[in-house]
Amino acid sequence: MAADPITPTTGRTRLATTGARRATEAALMSANGRDRLIGMVFQALLLLGLSVALFMLAALLVWSLVEGAPRLGPELITNGPSTVRPAEAGFRTAILGTLLVVGGVVAVIVPVGVGAAIYLEEYANRDRWLNRLIELNIQNLAGVPSIVFGILGLAFIVRGPLNLGFVAAAGSLTLALLVLPTVIIAAREAIRAVPPSIREGSLALGATRWQTIRRQTLPAAMPGVLTGVILAVARATGEAAPLLLVGAVTFVTFNPNFFEGGYSTLPVQIFNYSNRAQDEFRVLAMAGVIVMLGLVLLMNSFAVWLRNRFERSW
Amino acid sequence: MDVEIRERSEVQPVENRQAIGIRIVTSEGGATPSTEEAVFELDHLSCYYGSFRAVRDISLSIRKNAITAIIGPSGTGKSTLLRSFNRMNDLVPSARIEGKILYHGIDLYDRRVDPVEVRRRIGMVFQKPNPFPKSIWENVAFGPKVAGMKGNLDEIVEASLRRAVLWEEVKDKLRQSGLSLSGGQQQRLCIARAIAVEPDVILMDEPCSALDPVATLRIEELMIELKQNYTIVIVTHNMQQAARVSDETVFLTMDDDRAGYLVEQGATPQIFTNPTNRLTEDYVSGRFG
What we know:
The complex is a heterodimer.
Chain A (H helix, E strand, L loop, with lengths): L10 H19 L2 H37 L6 H4 L13 H32 L5 H13 L4 H13 L9 H25 L3 H9 L4 H30 L2 H5 L20 H9 L4 H32 L4
Chain B lengths: L1 E4 L16 E4 L12 E12 L2 E12 L3 E5 L6 H8 L9 E9 L2 E2 L7 H7 E4 L10 H12 L5 H11 L3 H4 L12 H14 L4 E5 L7 H14 L4 E5 L3 H7 L2 E7 L5 E8 H6 L4 H7 L5
Parallel strand pairs in B: 5-10, 5-11, 8-9, 9-10
Antiparallel strand pairs in B: 1-2, 3-4, 3-6, 6-7, 11-12
């Protein structure tokens, strides 16, 4: 039986090797306990933050469902509003108003926003100070409070040069101005993310700049652009303050028309109902919240489906 | 010799590879054009990016239906030189040239010349394969579509893929993404894409540097086959590749001013076995670079 060359036999050597091993162990494992604890605490904090956010969202959804459930039913969508008969009041006119206004917003922000983003990314010469100024201001505009846009709309769209009056078209334009910076910024980021090698490859084949944008760059940037549009639409659907200034009245019994007459939207109508004293109106307001959430979900789902159609793997 | 350069709007769709849009008309008493035609003639060409001179005073000619390799150490402006042939440097705002590049006798940088038309006749394949994020069919059909070429697109796609020796491998998956191919296949796809617009010249900027040796060999075989119908100019870091593949070699190097200049140009066998310039000899024998 040959002696194991690693295992020491003399006492002094054994002491030395044990000491060496202990020292190595101490060095390799010393920071272990404390660092691992810090890591775990940090991870727990992050998880806590996420949970809080999710919990608030869930609480909101559950609470509105519970509160508004008694009034959920088809008459919510088919009936017009009423101040005296809460049991029969509905949101029909408000829903139509929202659809009109948001439809108008989309019709404006998609061509204007994407067009502006294309110009800024593809055509503008970054060295000129004017273009840098424009970029800076667009980012500033994204942070302006929405009520300011309401006043702007009142001064220039309802009255002033455009003089449209208190109609749904004016509301659309006002909200379009409000959410345009969001779309421009998102579209710019998406266009910027398209690799330059794609553009070079296209140009090297003899495509013009516009052909390259239309057939390569823009389709590739579509997912990001559509995300920006989704965000803009969601925001526009929920805005009440600027619309109140440009003429969304809180009570409309007839189906709204885009260019004539009064109109109302879901947030404004909910605001109206929630101000009333009777309990039934509060329940009605919560039901309206559910309807609004459902509408936003529907619009977002459509946009996500559209986005998936354009998605390609890089 | 009168040269008539048509503006882009007048150009007919490409039906054959002759230079449509650039018509060379001989004047009454003019001499006949020479038969040994140089595709490119560079006349004291310098390329600048702003105030930095990347390429200095280059005069050379590129022969038709041959493979010309541009070799030299890194940073000597080989890619810049190559990109000046199809006006890709125009995409850089600060880029400009001095001197002349003549393509079939026409000044490429003449103000009346449309760079888009230039790029249809002088195609380019890049170092890193860059297929579009579309299907294989769409990749190859893109060039003919934007050029407004007449003819059955399916036939054009098949012919181009056959010429790029890729048809057999992809004929059953034309609708799949171009990015699903291997590196070598992607590069052949890019070559097929460039061929589809029926160019006169194909420029290749280190086309094999991102590929494995087997794929490299296939591309080199492809190049030798293609030169029967196209003029090919290739930039390469790989000296052995230049020796294997090219008919003519151009050697660039640079001085302290970091501007690339032409050291020697000649037939490949002569450059590699019996160069006239000392620097060339040092480079091909590996003493520097």
